[in-house]
Amino acid sequence: MRLIIMPESSSAMRLAAAEIASVMTSCASPVLGLATGRTMEGVYGDLVRLHQKQGLDFSSTTSFNLDEYVGLSADDRRSYHYYMNDLLFRHVNISQTNVHLPNGVAADLAQECADYEQAIRNAGGIDLQLLGIGDTGHIGFNEPPSPFDTRTRCVTLNERTREQNAAMFGGDPQKVPDRALTMGVGTILEAKHLLLLALGSAKADIVACALEGDVTPQVSASAIRLHDHCTVILDEASASALTEQTRRDADFRPR
């Protein structure tokens, strides 16, 4: 695992965008696994800037998002479909036929999950999977406990997760859907490269738990330590609870 600690959140987001852009320019037909949430907003903003100012080409890129709420249609402003279109897809030259997100209103959710797994296989697998980390230690919506061999599936969301995501639902956790479709931990671990980004002091304790605690299904983010090609980008605030030994081994980037 390569750990990079940046001085501030803006530089961490720029570095994450640069890592994604590097994969895109080094692959003839890149397949990206994408994530949502406030942490990713700056990353997508930087990718849009790279497209508009430096010609970063999305025309041969295929994308698969980690998750989607059950019960929200693609045109619902609170859905991850809407989030991705609003922040990234409509601003770049990606083909809509190459954009994939789980369908949270599918008539048969189990079949939707099986079809999603098959679509990833048909694309040749994911070259780079972007990840955040939730308050429960989840990647995607893999709430504890999530065995490390799980595949794309329907899950019940932890109450803490619903509280964390309530801002998009008028601040009311009870309005956050209680189920979601998510790539499984096993699906995520099959990506060729994992890139986890965490920002801010509120993430410090769970980041330390994931990177220094037990590798356990109780903290699905800890599974990234089993991957042969994993990069973790933190800012100083999110790295603040790490031990001195871990910080000494990290790659610090200057201001």
UniProtKB/TrEMBL annotation:
Keywords, ordered alphabetically: Carbohydrate metabolism, Hydrolase
Gene3D superfamilies: 3.40.50.1360
Boundaries of every Glucosamine/galactosamine-6-phosphate isomerase domain copy: 13-227
Cellular-component GO terms for this entry: cytoplasm
Pfam families: Glucosamine_iso
Catalytic residues (positions): 67, 138, 143
SUPFAM superfamilies per the UniProt record, alphabetical: NagB/RpiA/CoA transferase-like (SSF100950)
GO biological process: carbohydrate metabolic process; glucosamine catabolic process; N-acetylglucosamine catabolic process; N-acetylneuraminate catabolic process
InterPro entries: Glc/Gal-6P_isomerase (IPR006148), Glucosamine6P_isomerase (IPR004547), NagB/RpiA_transferase-like (IPR037171)
Protein origin, superkingdom: Bacteria
Substrates-to-products reaction catalysed: alpha-D-glucosamine 6-phosphate + H2O = beta-D-fructose 6-phosphate + NH4(+)
Pathway(s) it belongs to: Amino-sugar metabolism; N-acetylneuraminate degradation; D-fructose 6-phosphate from N-acetylneuraminate: step 5/5
Coiled-coil regions, chain positions: none
Transmembrane segments: none
Role according to the record: Catalyzes the reversible isomerization-deamination of glucosamine 6-phosphate (GlcN6P) to form fructose 6-phosphate (Fru6P) and ammonium ion.
Family: Belongs to the glucosamine/galactosamine-6-phosphate isomerase family. NagB subfamily.
HAMAP family the UniProt entry points to: GlcN6P_deamin
Protein name: Glucosamine-6-phosphate deaminase
